[in-house]
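Technical note accompanying the year-one report. For the benefit of new consortium partners, we illustrate the data format agreed upon in the data management plan: each record pairs a sequence with a structure-token string. No post-processing was applied to the example shown here.
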Amino acid sequence: MMKRTFLLTGLVLSLLLACITLPVCGENGPDSLFVYSGAGLKAPMTEIGTAFEEKSGIAVEYNFAGSGTLITQMELTKKGDVFIPGGTPDYRIAQEKGLVTDPVYIAYHVPVIGVLPGNPLEISSVQDFTKEGVRLALGDVNATAIGRQGKKLFDKFGITEDVEKNVLFRAPTINEVVTALKLRQVDASLITMDQIKGDEIEAVALPDEESLALIVPAGLTTFTTQEENAKKFVDFISSDEGKAIFGKHGFPIYPDPAYASVKP
């Protein structure tokens, strides 16, 4: 019990120390917004921030991290203006905690299996994650949307325990999972379609019965002090121009008939 208490205390202190170094823990200027964004959305959101500032003169500062970490930081600081996680389950958690307003929907985060070029282990589904000798990196269940989606799949097929035997590590962001695969530290991982770039990683599409695509939401925090500017930013993200930037980075744009069965 004492060990658990120390661990929890250490976690809270670490989050507080992290917040001290973030602009969000201070007050933003009248022409600056602070945005909590899922780490897996960094490429499109960075481009969107630049385009929005050029159009509006309003600067955008980001905190990129796993969605679970972002929710904890919002709870601790009650600062910041916009939240855009990797999927609606995390947004719903933040909404239930009274941290965010109703969302708009931007794009789809589509899970795929990431493998090494040529798929040497012939992995065709998450059930192959149980094969002896397969080295896996997965997203942290408590910190990442992809980690939670993976757990749903493993639980669905009753393979969670066997998969865990092959997990070398769980990462707090999807970016670190992708890096491990690119460096060939692991053989496979569960990532998202937008992360497949270049020839360092190949994607294996999940069979229909395994697919757990997510919808990317965005919305204002309930404690923003710049509601008008924050709304302008969310409106820009969900505009045709903002969605096109997501499409450019490999995200299917919401709504898409191909993902009609995926609900927020």
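Partners are asked to follow this layout when depositing records. The longest helix spans residues 2-20.
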